[in-house]
Please model this.
Amino acid sequence: MGDDHGSLTERLAAALNRARAAGIDDATRAAAKRFVLDTLACAMAGTLTPPGRMLLAEGRRRGPGPADVLALDGGRDDETAAQVNGGLAHIVEMDDLDRASVVHPGCVVVPAALAVAEATGASGTAFLDAVVVGYEAALRVGESVGRSHYAQFHNTATCGPYGSAAAAAALLGLDDERTVWALGNAGSIAGGLWQFNRDGAMTKHLHAGRAAANGVLAARLAADGFTGAREVLEGAQGLYAGTSTDASPERVTEGLDRLGGATPWRIHGVSVKPHASCRHTHPAVDAALALRRQLGDGVAAAARAVTVETYGAALAVTDAPDPRNPYQAKFSLQYTVAQALLHGRVGLTDFGPERLDDPNLRAVMGRVGLCVDPEIDARYPAGWGARVRIGLADGQERTAQVDAPVGDPEAPVDEAAMRQKVANLLLGTRWSGRADAIADEVDGLDRHGSMAGWLAGLPRV
Model:
C-alpha cells in the first residue's frame, strides 16, 4: 500500500498510520488541544438548548459503558458518547470550520476520539494524535468532493465520518488493511442532505452526532475483521460517482509521502468561529461590524440600502430574508448582517424571540440585498470573502470588504480571545466560571497516562 499504489483509501490509510507512527510534532499537538477545547466548550453550551436536552435524553436511555457524555452521570458506550457529544458540539454554530473542505471537523472527530480514548484508557498523547489524524482524513476527503457536492450534501456529514473512523482506528491500533475497512464502511453509511435547512429543522445536529458515532462503530467492527469497500471514494458506485460532478481525487493523496514534514498537517488550516451563526455569514458580519466602527452606532438607522456581495455557496445556504426561528436566523445573511449593524455583535443570546420579533431589526433586514460577486466566488472555497456596501441617506456609499474573517489562520483568534470565547460558551452551564481551569486541563492532556474518566473529571460548579 505505497503512496503510488492501491486505492485512494488504501493510500490514505497507509500514509496516516505511517506519519502517526513517525511522531507528531508539538506544534501540531498544540493545535489539536486548541480544537479539543473549542469543541468541548461548544458542546457544553449545547447542553442548555432544547435539541441538546433531547440528545441527552436519548443518551440516558442507552446502557452503561466506559465513555462519558457531557451533563450525564455515569458512562455510556463509546458510540453513544460520540453521538451525543458530537450532536451537542454542533448546536450553537460556533464549532470550528475548515474552508477548503467545508467541513466542521471538531464536532465529528473530537467526540469520536474522546469516546474511544476513554473506553480504551489511551494516553492523552495518543488521543491528541488521533485527533490530528482524524482531521487530516476528513479534510482531505472534504477537499476532494468538489463544489457540486455541497449543493445537496452537508460535507460534515458525508466527509466527517472518514475523520471519526481514522481517529478511532488510530486509537484501536488498527493496521493499514483494517483502517481501510473502517474508512470504507464509515463512508459507505454516511449521509447528510441539506433539505432540513428549508424548515430550520434540528437535523444538522444529528448529522454531526451520527458522523462521529458511525466512525466509532466502523472502526470497532473493522478491528473484529468486518470488511469495507477499498474504493469507497473513486469506485464506480462510490462517493464521487454518487454525489459529485467535479471531484478532485488527487486532493486525497496530494503530498501524502511528505505528511508531517514538508506537507503540514491540515489541522493548522482550520478556522475558529467567533460569531454564533453559520460560518458563511461571518465574512459579511465582519464587514458590517467594520462599517459600524467607521460610521458609528447609528449606521443601521442611516442606511437606506445594504448590499452584501459574496460567493454563491453562501447565498445557497444563507439567503433567508424572513427567518422565523432561531435556527433559521443563524442561517440568514439578512438577519446576521442587520444584527451586526444594529447591535454590534452576533452572539449566543442574539437569536431569541425578542430579536426575531424586533421591528427595528426587521426594518434593517428589509434593506439588506444579496448578490454573487464573481471574483469573490472564484476564490471559494480556498477563501471565504464578502463585501458590504451601505448607501446612506445623504447619497454617500461606504464599503468594507473581508477576505479572511476573524478566526481564519490569516486573522487568528489569540489565546486571550479564545479563553474568553470558552468562558462565554460556559455561562449558565454546570461548568460556568471554570473556563480557565478547563483550558488548563486540556493544555495538560499530553501528561495524562490514561484518558479513562477524563471528561467526567473536568472542573465544574
User: Anything to note?
Assistant: The CA atoms of residues 78 and 115 lie 5 Å apart.
